[in-house]
Amino acid sequence: MSENLYNILRYRFPKNRGAKFIETPNDRSIMYDDVDRLTAIFAAAMLNLGIDRGHRLLVSIDKSPEAILIYLAALRLEAIFVPLNPTYTDREFKYFLENSTPTVVILRNKKDKAKIAAAKQMGAKVATINTSNEGSFIDLANVCKPFNLINATKKTQPAAILYTSGTTGKPKGVVLTHGNLSSNGKTLHHVWGFQPGDVLLHALPVFHVHGLFVAIHCAMLNASKIIYLEKFDIDLVIDQLQRATVMMGVPTFYTRLLKHPSLDASLCKNMRLFISGSAALLPQTWIDFKAKTKHEIIERYRMSEAGMITSNPLNGERLPGTVGFTLPDIEVRVTSEDGTKLSSGKIGVLEVKGPNVFSGYWRRPELTATEFRSDGFFISGDMATVSASGRIKIVGRNRDLIISGGLNVYPNEIEDSLNILPGIIESAVIGVIHPDLGESVVACIVTEASFKCDENEIIDALKNQLASYKVPRRIIRLESLPKNIMGKIQKNMLRQRYSVLP
């Protein structure tokens, strides 16, 4: 039997194919019977451009219903979907392009001239599509005969490559298979109790695990309608809450909702479930949200390499500050650095094993080998404790990843950009607790004595090199950075020093 993820999702389509799949605030709708028809047309357009089984399809476009249909069409063809944040700079984009070597690149519009030129230089075919459903990809699709076949697929076949990174080195591609994604989707559909009539309010980006895989797969496995917002617009979310039953968000969503005067229990009377992830939810946010809405947010834990790993229970005590229990069919353990399993309550490295865990890093077999134990457990790099009852708490990261507004920020990349600026000797980038974003990006720098640039000038210089969410909100100038005897910068000391910014 084919393990093609599209086939698995399609099997769950509602009996009434005229039911809504996606609905937007501007009254645009896509029905479930449209999904089969449109993805067949999009698949034909991809074939026309040269996509075949195993080829990479790199997509860097704004959020729209078509973004989801392109992803689903890629699944049908067994192409490998490579989603990118469209706000990446030309320099950042070029790295992902050269690393993934896509056959086809789909961009926002003709204004992305440098990205188009880079893709063509690599030999990729380029198409465009904007949020108004216009562009060369749509023009091509309109003249293509639908490709109605769905390729038979083994669960080990790669479905997507998501780019992530550690605190050193270049971003690396996480290869997720059809089996990884389908197993995680089915598990989450079950443990979060999706039921007939559930409506998902979707305000997340669709270039990472949370918005593209977790939200979309759960909704489709449930044959649910999705109220699909281009972005998190607080007034639109408030306006649509009464029409939804489930919302998935990052902590920033909830801090902003709490500030809105209209948020109360009556507004949320139809809501069944609020879910938060991609960054730590402050316990006070959880407490305040419950007081105002009578709803307890479900916090869970995921990473690009394994999708969702744990969740607070649907039925049972949800403890703020914890990420709940291991999901079914997944094993976790907390270990010392050498892999020795630690007893309950001890802080160590969280390791995970299960059908959700990725197959490896794209074209990095040597790195893949170092990140797995001999018995198949993946070393997450996150520090955690597991209680005697199995409840998990993430207590920190031994990799200095920053999560700001639900998006991953990797300090080394920002430090590289800072350190090439004239007059800067060295830098250290840290995350500082922020009541809205979860963490705020802060850079500590050491400069030459004659250095004259001020904070705003440095920030402006970085805006030409980095996506906006990576640019530090503060630049702190120091005489020296704290280091250990081996010369390694002690970022933990900087975090303690600037837990409250000056």
Structural descriptors:
GMP Synthetase, Chain A, domain 3, Luciferase, domain 3, 25 strands, 3 domains, nine-stranded mixed beta sheet, Rossmann fold, four-stranded parallel beta sheet, alpha/beta
Please write out the topology.
Layout: H1 5-11, E1 20-23, E2 29-31, H2 32-49, E3 56-60, H3 65-77, E4 80-83, H4 90-100, E5 104-107, H5 113-121, E6 125-128, H6 136-141, E7 158-164, E8 172-177, H7 178-191, E9 199-202, H8 209-221, E10 225-228, H9 234-240, E11 246-249, H10 251-258, E12 273-276, H11 283-293, E13 298-303, E14 307-311, E15 325-326, E16 331-335, E17 348-353, E18 360-361, H12 365-371, E19 378-386, E20 392-397, E21 402-404, E22 407-409, H13 411-419, E23 424-434, E24 438-447, H14 455-463, E25 474-477, H15 491-497
Parallel strand pairs: 1-10, 3-4, 3-5, 5-6, 9-10, 9-11, 11-12, 12-13, 24-25
Antiparallel strand pairs: 1-2, 7-8, 8-18, 13-14, 14-15, 16-17, 17-19, 19-20, 21-22, 23-24
Helix pairs in contact: 2-3, 4-5, 7-8, 10-11
Give a written overview of the molecule.
This protein is of the alpha/beta class and 502 residues long. The protein folds into 3 domains: 5-14 and 26-178, Rossmann fold (3-Layer(aba) Sandwich), CATH 3.40.50; 274-397, Roll (Luciferase, domain 3), CATH 2.30.38; 402-497, GMP Synthetase, Chain A, domain 3 (2-Layer Sandwich). Helices cover 30% and strands 25% of the residues. The chain contains 15 helices and 25 strands. It has helices spanning 5-11, 32-49, 65-77, 90-100, 113-121, 136-141, 178-191, 209-221, 234-240, 251-258, 283-293, 365-371, 411-419, 455-463, 491-497, and strands at 20-23, 29-31, 56-60, 80-83, 104-107, 125-128, 158-164, 172-177, 199-202, 225-228, 246-249, 273-276, 298-303, 307-311, 325-326, 331-335, 348-353, 360-361, 378-386, 392-397, 402-404, 407-409, 424-434, 438-447, 474-477. The strands form 6 sheets. Strands 2-1-10-9-11-12-13-14-15 form a 9-stranded mixed β-sheet. A 4-stranded parallel β-sheet has the order 4-3-5-6, with helices on both faces. A hairpin with a 3-residue loop joins strand 23 and strand 24 (438-447). The chain is globular, with a radius of gyration of 23 Å.
